[in-house]
Write a structure and sequence with these properties.
The chain is mainly beta. The protein contains three helices and 38 strands. The chain starts with 7 loop residues before the first strand and ends with a helix.
C-alpha cells in the first residue's frame, strides 16, 4: 500500500440537528456526524446502543482510523458506567454489528479506544455501546463528546456537539424468567407514592389472546429505582377443564381509587377457542363459553395482596355484542370520586366502539357508556376542568403500517354525562398522529396549573418514534416545542404514563431496546426540550 502524505486542515463546520463536521484531508474529504438514532441507555441490558458515529469519505482512497476518544461531559456519571465499546459497521441499521473497533473498561472521564479500521470511500458507521452499573440512577442522563479522532496518525477534533441519553430500566426483556414476551403496560402512582406496574406475561409467543397469558404486577417504593419481583395477580388457571392456553387473561388496565387507595386492575379473560385470536373468536352472549369476560381484581393494601377475580360481565355487557374489554392502560378517579375505566366493545355487527365503564359506589357496581365513535378501540380517559371526560382513542381509519398515505391520527371525543352522549373535540383526527396504536394520556398538576401529557409512537407509518407531548390548553394544541423523543427505534408501541410527583413523570412502554422499558423525566426537562 502506498502511503500518502495527508495534510489536514478544517475547511468548515456545518451543524445540523445532529451535528456535523467536515474536514479536508488532501485528496479525501471526510465528513463526521452523529447518527439520528435516539435510544435510552438501560440498566439490566448488556450492550446499549448509545450513539452512532457516521464518517463519510468522499475521496477515492481508504483512510486509516487509528483512535477514537470519548469524554464524559458530567463527572458524576463515572459511577453509572461499567464500560463503553465501539463497533464498526458497513450499514446504519439498528442491529448491533459484531466487529469490534475498541473496548474500554476505563471509568475515567476520558476514554480512549485504539483500533485499526479503514475509512472506506463512502459511508462508514461506528456504534458506541454502553453498559451501566447497578448504581446508575434513573434520575440522571449520560452525556458524552467525541473529543478526538486519530486518522492516519494525525489528530482530528471533530467539533461535534455532545450526545445525551436518558438512563432507564430494561424493565422486562424477551425470555426473562423463560417468558417469551411481555406486553401491554399499565402504570399508576398510589396515594402512598408507590408505583404499580402491570402487564401481559405472554409465556409461549408474542401473539394476542387466545394463548397462555397472565397478568403480572411489580411495585416500586422509591420512584422506580428498584422494583419488587413479579407477582401474578390475574391467572385463570385451567378453568372449565381446559388448559392454561385456553384460559388466557390480559390487556390490563389499572386504576387507583384516590378516595380509598384501593387499586383496581381490569383484564379480559378468553375461555376456549384454541389457536384463534380472541378479537374474532369471541361471540355474542354472556357466559365464558360464548364470549370473553370482563374481569377485575383489587388490592386494598397498596398492592401487596390481591383479590380473587371479580366478573362484572353481566353488569355491563350487552349480550348482542361480540366482545367487551377494557382500555388497556389506566383509568382515573374523577374529582367527585367516580371511578372510570376506558373500555371498548364490538357490537352486533362486529363494529368496534371505544367507551367508558364507571362506578359511583367505590367499585361495588359498574355501568357502561355508549359508543363514542365507530371503528375506535383502545382509549385513554382524563377529566377536564369543567368536569367533562375526554376520551382519546385509537382510530382504525388511520392508514397504519401498511397504508399508503400515512394519515393516521387519534380520535378524541368528550362526554358531559358519563358516556350517555358524546361530542367531537376540536383536536380529533388531526392533532396527534400515529400508526394506529394504543397511546397514553394523563392529567398532571403543577404550580396550580393543569396540563395534559400524552405519549405514543409519533409516526404515521410504523410503531417507532416514541414521544412524550404536553398540552397547556386541555388538548386543543400540542406545541412541537413540548415534544420529547425518547426512543426512535421500532417497537410494539404501547405506553402508559404516571405522575410520580409534581416534578417527575414516569413512563412504561414497549420500546425498541426491550419488551418493556421504564424511564422517568423531570417535568422541567420535558418543558425545556
Amino acid at each position: 500500500m502506498i502511503e500518502i502524505n495527508y495534510y489536514l486542515f478544517v475547511l468548515a463546520l456545518i451543524f445540523g440537528f445532529n451535528g456535523t463536521a467536515s474536514i479536508e484531508i488532501n485528496i479525501s474529504k471526510i465528513t463526521i456526524s452523529w447518527g439520528d438514532q435516539v435510544y435510552p441507555v438501560l440498566k439490566g441490558k448488556d450492550k446499549n446502543q448509545f450513539a452512532q458515529l457516521k464518517i463519510v469519505n468522499e475521496g477515492r482512497e481508504a483512510v486509516p482510523l487509528n483512535q477514537i476518544t470519548l469524554t464524559l461531559v458530567n463527572a458524576e456519571n463515572i459511577n453509572d458506567i461499567d464500560s463503553f465499546n465501539i463497533y464498526s459497521a458497513l450499514q446504519p441499521g439498528e442491529v448491533l454489528p459484531q466487529k469490534i473497533f475498541g473496548e474500554s473498561n476505563n471509568a475515567g472521564k476520558s476514554i480512549v479506544f485504539h483500533g485499526n479500521e479503514s475509512i472506506l470511500p463512502g459511508e462508514n458507521y461506528f456504534w458506541i455501546t454502553c453498559s451501566l452499573t447497578d448504581k446508575a440512577s434513573l434520575s440522571r442522563n449520560i452525556s458524552i463528546k467525541c473529543s478526538e479522532l486519530i486518522i492516519n496518525k494525525k489528530k482530528v477534533d471533530p467539533q461535534l456537539p455532545p450526545i445525551t441519553r436518558q438512563i432507564g430500566w430494561a424493565f422486562r426483556q424477551h425470555q426473562d424468567d423463560d417468558v417469551d414476551t411481555y406486553r401491554i403496560p399499565g402504570l399508576v402512582t398510589t396515594n402512598r407514592g408507590t408505583l404499580i406496574a402491570v402487564y401481559d406475561i405472554r409465556r409461549n409467543s408474542s401473539v394476542d389472546l387466545q394463548e397462555d397469558i397472565d397478568v403480572g404486577m411489580q411495585r416500586s417504593t422509591n420512584a422506580g429505582e428498584t422494583w419488587s419481583p413479579i407477582q401474578l395477580i390475574m391467572d385463570m388457571g385451567e378453568w372449565g377443564g381446559k388448559p392454561q392456553g385456553e384460559n388466557g387473561i390480559g390487556d390490563p388496565s389499572i386504576l387507583v381509587d384516590k378516595v380509598t387507595n384501593t387499586i383496581w386492575v381490569a383484564g379480559v379473560w378468553a375461555h376456549g377457542h384454541p389457536d384463534e385470536r380472541n378479537w374474532w373468536a369471541s361471540r355474542p352472549g354472556l357466559d365464558p363459553e360464548e364470549t370473553s369476560q370482563f374481569m377485575l381484581v383489587k388490592s386494598e393494601d397498596d398492592g401487596f395482596n390481591w383479590s380473587e377475580p371479580i366478573n362484572i360481565t353481566q353488569q355491563i355487557k350487552d349480550p348482542n355484542w361480540h366482545l367487551l374489554l377494557q382500555g388497556p392502560g389506566k383509568g382515573i378517579t374523577m374529582s367527585d370520586g367516580t371511578l372510570v375505566f376506558p373500555a371498548q366493545f364490538k357490537d352486533a355487527d362486529q363494529m368496534p366502539h371505544a367507551t367508558i365503564i364507571y362506578s359511583k359506589d367505590r367499585g361495588e357496581t359498574w355501568n357502561i357508556g355508549t359508543g363514542a365513535k365507530s371503528n375506535t378501540t383502545e382509549a385513554q380517559v382524563v377529566e377536564l376542568s369543567d368536569g367533562s371526560l375526554m376520551l382519546n382513542m385509537r382510530d382504525n381509519r388511520g392508514s397504519g403500517p401498511q397504508g399508503p398515505n400515512g394519515e393516521g391520527a387519534r380520535s378524541v371525543m368528550v362526554t358531559r354525562n358519563l358516556g350517555k352522549t358524546w361530542e367531537k373535540h376540536p383536536s380529533s383526527g388531526s392533532a396527534l398522529p400515529e400508526p394506529v396504536c394504543m397511546a397514553s394520556l394523563i392529567q398532571h398538576n403543577i404550580d396550580d396549573k393543569t396540563i395534559l401529557i400524552f405519549s405514543n409512537p409519533a409516526n404515521t407509518f410504523s410503531r417507532q418514534d416514541m414521544t412524550i407531548k404536553i398540552s397547556f390548553d386541555e388538548g386543543l394544541t400540542w406545541p412541537s416545542k413540548y415534544h420529547t423523543l425518547i426512543d426512535n427505534g421500532r417497537g410494539r408501541g404501547y405506553s402508559c404514563l404516571t405522575s410520580i410527583d409534581e416534578e417527575t413523570i414516569g413512563i412504561l412502554y414497549e420500546g425498541s431496546q426491550a419488551d418493556l422499558i421504564f424511564q422517568k423525566f423531570k417535568l422541567e426537562e420535558l418543558l425545556n426540550n
